[in-house]
């Protein structure tokens, strides 16, 4: 009897802490301390992942085939359409900086997601309306039409509303999803590492369905229907997000100044105290175990922020060691951000020039049925889905056993692998384009842009597949790195910095296209981006990108040798 009572008592002691176990720096939807057992984790993350699937379905339902819409119904030239797509998608990738700042400084991630979703829905609604307007003139001997002014104005207002909505939605949703896992808990720490993999897995699934379904609808049925379905999906996404409100964990901001302001104060204070050398601080704090020596030695000029204007160290100082460490963590990311720009310049080609290439090639599967050119991007999504599953379920457990790191390999190693695969992908695309031009010339189709080149479109598939695998390594690695290495109340800003790589990369891609267009499109010369791709030279452009990718990879490998992970780094 006593043994039975003892067992019952012990069981009660074990269970009680679980029921009362709260998560540090998090509250529930009412603002109360949140219990671990009935909040967060995969249960809450599943709602947020569902939102991301719907949002990516909607976004790629527009972006993947936008160049076809601009060169077809709107009658724009290939160069103009490519630049418009790059500028729009670049803006969409930069606006998360603004959205993340608003979220982390004022509204919080949850409110920002809701407001951004409403803006997103408004933009998609106007985009659908613009597609319903009739074009002014269609020529019977041409594949394109000219558009009316109202249609063009409404289209671009809608597109940039979508970009603004995505700017608030994209960085906050993923950061909010990662917030559902507590890095202080061993089990949840491993789950958070997997979260970034499965986030990309389901996101790629949404993109795949969008590429297969919406591109077919847009090319063969109706552009207005093809834009209207994404609008409906975003409405569903908002509903799904609101359904999980009671189960979410909401991060509590650190007391004191805004994190961005704290980091700015570190740089200002370090600049003011540039004459002093705070050598005494190092030995004192190392004795306390406050800071690691290796981290202290890097960016030593910022250590001056720990001193007052007379060079002494006082208890009441503006900047703390934690503030300095946060500033250093952000500063360490700058070389990574810079050396990944080459990857970001290559990234948009799969949704612009690759699509135009595919449109000139043999896309028939059976007599009377051709696959839409933009649907070839689905091979990138398929390769992402397969690669993520293999990576997370097979590679990571093996690597984890060998390295004793929760994520298997270091984040920087993962990113570098993707950079290498991206270079291989664009080099292969250049070889395929060289072959396509050769076949076009041999077949006498140089001046026949509307005649299909007798070369199978499947030759483009390896490049799409390699792009997809590269994304699994580089994109997911960058997401995890920029989330993990920034201060806790700057997670949305961290993810927006990762997204800004691709925004700047797309602007640089557009700039590079403009420069090459002017340099090669003189009198009596055919531009590398001529509307007739059989007279163009996309292969030259791809070789430039391949060379840029190699240089970028070398610089990346050099700078990562000196990277020091933040102290809370998990790998």
From TrEMBL:
Listed name of the protein: Protein NRT1/ PTR FAMILY 5.10-like
Transmembrane segments: 114-134, 146-164, 198-217, 223-244, 330-351, 412-432, 457-483, 495-516, 540-559
GO molecular function, one term: dipeptide transmembrane transporter activity
Family, similarity comment: Belongs to the major facilitator superfamily. Proton-dependent oligopeptide transporter (POT/PTR) (TC 2.A.17) family.
GO cellular component: plant-type vacuole membrane
Localization of this protein: Membrane
Membrane-related topology note: Multi-pass membrane protein
CDD domains, alphabetized: MFS_NPF5
Origin: domain of life: Eukaryota
Keywords assigned by UniProt, alphabetized: Membrane, Phosphoprotein, Transmembrane, Transmembrane helix, Transport
